[in-house]
Design brief:
Largest sheet: 5 strands, antiparallel
Helix content: 25-40%
Number of helices: 4
Distance between the termini: 30 Å
Strand content: 25-35%
Length: 127
């Protein structure tokens, strides 16, 4: 059996009204240094978001998260952060911020296949 390796993940949250601190889980970002893996999955449930905060422009949220995908992929279209190493990009994406897109604290774990863990967490925390 292959050895398990450490990984870190954070839950991506939509916080429509930062001052109220209410949020919806909309994605998961996972980083595994040993497997050279950094990826995220997200789902924007428009009905749920509109019920929670009708005034939000869902297209802005989608554009924001598409940029996060580009940063994970080291795509230059994601901006200067995309040029940094994976660990830096994960830390930057998962850092604390006061915007409508925020992340939980990073949590550790052990895995054999990070993509499978990302899928499992996405199903458990977001869908």
């Amino acid at each position: 059996m292959p050895d398990k390796v450490p990984y870190e993940y954070a839950i991506i949250r939509l916080v429509p009204k930062v001052e109220r601190e209410e949020f919806l889980n909309i994605g998961v970002i996972l980083f595994c240094k040993r497997k050279k893996y950094l990826n995220l999955k997200y789902y924007i449930d428009q009905k749920k978001i509109k019920a929670f905060a009708d005034e939000l422009d869902v297209s802005i949220i989608s554009t924001y998260l598409q940029t996060w995908e580009m940063i994970c992929q080291a795509n230059p279209a994601g901006g200067p952060i995309s040029e940094k190493d994976q660990a830096y990009r994960f830390r930057w994406l998962a850092s604390s911020r006061s915007s409508i897109i925020q992340c939980s604290k990073a949590h550790p774990g052990l895995c054999i296949e990070p993509a499978a863990i990302l899928d499992k967490m996405f199903g458990g925390f977001v869908l």
